[in-house]
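Deliverable D4.2, example record:
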Amino acid sequence: MKEPSIPKNEKERLNELESYKIIGELENSDYDFLTRMAAEICGTKISLISLVTEDKQWFLSHHGIEVRETPKELAFCGHAINKPDELFLVEDATKDERFFDNPLVIDEPNVIFYAGMPLVNENGYSLGTLCVIDNKPKKLSTEQISSLKMLSNQVMKLLDLHRKTLVLNKQNTRLKKITELFKESQRINHVGAWELDLETGETLWTEEIYAIYEVPQDFDHNKEKAINYYHPEDLHLIVNAIETTLKTGEPYDVVCRFISAKNNLKWVRSSGRLWQEEGKKAKLIGVFQDITERKNTEDQLRISEQAFRGNFESAAIGMALLDEKGRWIKVNKQLCQILGYSKKEFMELTFQDITHPDDLASDLFLLKQLIQGKRDSYTLEKRYIHKNGQIIYIILAVSMVLNEEGKILYFVSQIVDITEVKNIEHKLANSLSNTQAILDANTQVAIIGTDLKGTITLFNKGAEQMLGYNAEELINKSTPFIFNLKEEIKEVAQELEKELNEKFEGTQIFAAKAKKGIPDTREWTLRRKDGSLLSTLLSITAVKHNGNITGFLGVAADITETKKSEKETQELLEIAQSQNDRLKNFAYIVSHNLRSHSGGISSLIELTESEAPDFSQTEIFEYLKKSSNNLTETIIHLTEVVQINLSSKEKLTSTLLNPVLENNINSLITQAKKANITIINEVDTSTMVQAVPAYLDSIVMNFMTNAIKYSSNERDSYLRINTEKTNDYIILKFSDNGLGINLKKHGDKLFGMYKTFHNHADSRGIGLFITKNQIEAMNGKIEVESEINVGTTFKIYLDYEKN
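Output generated by the structure prediction step:
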């Protein structure tokens, strides 16, 4: 046998396969349909979608065979992936030097004929194959080969769609999380962001600005209306600041009084700067913060000297007295805590020594104006340097205390540590930047936001690429109707009217279900700017603030290729439909033919018994005769399984347990002797249960073979079989002293499909799964007790006829 060569790009190929996150996934009807179709078209018993990993080939879908994986060194598909552009064809493996002694050829499933079409993704990596297999030599026609290639292309499209869906879900989750963090940061700090279109005069606000203005989310704002809310005496500050920024390009940052829509006086901090996207006209953007609480705190600090002296040491903020030269006269405990110096160390410093060099000039300028009598006090946001070198952001309020002659006695400094607030502001700025970057970077899906009236307020890069419009053409200018077909809108409106018992018009159609909190994902045909059409899958959700809907967000993915693939699949389905009727009687034909062969074997045994009486008295002949009888009985059971409706309890029949046990013991006596295991049957000969005989025979066979297979070489092995009767069940027990199972580790997946718990060559991980389903189909249940290197007891609960 020749093992498959490792591809030159194996590391990259495995990384590419891993990116699909498909290995170990549950079976999917889409893939199963394609494998079934491949088998029907090529006339083979087996067809597989095989993905080749580092050490095995794993079957994403399997038709005509129950195993889910095989070792890579035995895999025909391991050879096929080395030639990504070719159909790998083996018409007779018994004559091929690479495979004639392969265990998969010699034993089950007897791979004689093999044809595998590599599954090659868009990056050129061969992930596995779509293959068809038979147990006899075959040749494929040109049409069959062509169909197999078409089906492999369809498998690859489904895999690519699976990977794109994973990426899309991950991106959507991350976007939602960042958006919520951004909103929460704004709410906590009473900070909002805004944008002014210098060409149109239109403004864009984040949610917190509406809260500061105390207006509803659907408030129609613009440049003039926004400025008119500033206090009349402070209006010139913001106007001059904006005009200066527009002329010089320098950012502005002003603090003004502000009157909200509910006539509440506030202090606000407004900062802004010019911002220009590449190839687009400049806009003015900025941050708007309600600092009323902070200003009130500053005002409260301006207390009388008497109150100041009484509360100096216990003040919750840093306080200090300084002389005319800036030397510290007295500091309180809080200031020491803020900056890390002791009171003694402060006395050896000046305020210049601990002020950040970049902030010193503005502080000295304001101090000079204070000394000159041009102002009574000043407030400054600045940076101090902590004793350990850390930057401390503070708000500094400075006033003077004069003597009767008007000379300066000392300066009173009040210091509020706002380092935490500044850190949050920095995080907010980063969040704003990251959110915009994510929206612009997400080019795989179209993200379109609207306000409550349906006007587009958000149009990301993905939407621009998908639909051909620039964001500036649509934002605040158009509704999503520009993309939709009239007839399709009409159909959806009629559908919504029937479903919700309410009539919808205009842009209400898009938001009807989202307003009611109902998920709304449906296919829409959209028209690009150039007039071409594309199919999309569009999900619409409501955007809320404080429980109120403020707009809607639509996320659309282009499914044009998927729809095309669906059409191709439907065409292939129609081709295969004509063959389906011929498969309906397959089980009946198989059971009929097996019965004929079984009858022939029984006749030969009877003839031998009459013609060669000496041989018929040998132990070998007795085993042969019992095996023939067991085969006949199995065929009878197979016929029963074909005809029976297992969902009906009346189809269960009264069955003696002991004969079933003895027949299986006789069938397995050779294996038991070889494994040196003693099988002890303690079941009463009269014990009878309600069962499907074929299932009961399969269940007994499975537990006996497992006891033999997993017996211990370190002791004399046994399998003890007995029963216990309760009011509801006959409990059939299989107890052995074999290897045992670690139930803490494997208990929750013991009866799972393709789950194995010992490194045994014959382990396939299917027996217990099938057995559990057979028991439950007979209204029973199964329990297990096991301990590593001690043994295992399986308890099968079966119905019996009550007197």
